[in-house]
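Re-run requested by the PI after the first attempt was lost when the workstation crashed. Everything re-entered from the original request form. Ligand of interest: beta,beta-carotene-4,4'-dione.
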Amino acid sequence: AVASTVAVFTSLSVDDQLAVLWYAYTEMGRSITPAATGAARLQLAEGLLNQIKQMTHEEQLQVMRDLAAKKNTQFCRSYGILSANTKLAFWYELSELMVKGFVVPMPSNYQLSRDGVRVLETLKELDFGQQITVLRKVVTDMGVDPLAD
Ligand code: 45D
């Protein structure tokens, strides 16, 4: 179930990937405690998060789309060197910044594709550990590994 969920997620459009991540956060948000994500991890992502805070909404959206599309930008390469859990902590913090109004909000009228809805439903049926495994895998695949050729 984990592998197929990741596969369908990866086949989604970039915007649907961002939307599914957001909906996953809104469903799981309360079960992910800030303590679990670890302040130390976030320090490693702090530079990237600070850059995002200083951007316009359009630029913020572009950076997130670039990460999902694995565009070879400086930002995507900096993201690429973070560990898997730090990448998760980065996305978690982005969601928190969205809630606080520092990052471009999700349009309330966004229409998720059928496959997007399917991924979300499957994700909801997995246990917490499997949900984390799926999310860790999809955010690990984002960005660009500067050490890969
Ligand atoms: O205009 O370290 C669209 C543990 C459409 C413990 C859009 C853990 C067009 C160890 C593209 C939709 C394993 C528990 C706009 C960590 C349009 C540890 C915008 C786990 C505006 C870290 C869309 C942590 C946008 C976990 C802006 C499980 C979408 C963390 C943004 C999970 C989506 C984090 C975002 C999750 C989604 C974060 C920012 C699920 C973030 C999701």
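Saved to the shared folder this time. Residues 99 and 105 are 8 Å apart (CA to CA).
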